[in-house]
TrEMBL record:
Taxonomic superkingdom: Bacteria
Protein name: Iron-sulfur cluster assembly accessory protein
Record-annotated Core domain positions: 20-118
Organism encoding this protein: Pararoseomonas baculiformis
Pfam families for this protein: Fe-S_biosyn (PF01521)
Classification via InterPro entries: ATAP, ATAP_core_dom, Fe-S_cluster_asmbl/transfer, FeS_cluster_insertion_CS, HesB-like_dom_sf
Similarity annotation: Belongs to the HesB/IscA family.
């Protein structure tokens, strides 16, 4: 006598979005896109700084073959495919301070940052 058991596979947990934009970042990016010549923002991660990695942003004409397309709040942001594992779940924000303004990243994968905040490690 033989018995067969079939295990139903557990449903896979949904992955967080690759990247999302805060309302403030979307507003600033929308203004930049309105002034730009149809260029798109491309985000990548480069080896740099005391902690090892740094966010890099460039303006490009179109998505390249190695780019992931993130569509959030009606805006398109490109992410270098090599950076996707480092950026899963990241929220891009835009902050205005007394002496500076710029895009910031809240990355759940970061394990630490250097003292000046220019680089991070995973």
């Amino acid at each position: 006598m033989s018995t067969t058991t079939t295990d139903t596979p557990k449903p896979r947990r949904a992955l967080p979005p690759l990247m999302s934009l805060s309302d403030t970042a979307a507003e600033r990016l929308r203004a930049l896109y309105a002034k730009g010549d149809g260029k798109l923002l491309r985000i990548s991660v480069s080896t740099k700084g005391c902690s090892g990695m740094s966010y890099q942003m460039d303006w490009v004409d179109a998505a390249g073959p190695g780019d992931e397309v993130v569509n959030d709040k009606g805006l398109i942001v490109l992410v270098d495919r090599k950076a996707t594992l480092f950026l899963i779940g990241t929220v891009m924000d835009y902050e205005r301070k007394a002496m500076s303004a710029g895009f910031t990243f809240t990355n759940p994968n970061e394990k630490g940052r250097c003292g000046c905040g220019e680089s991070f490690h995973i």
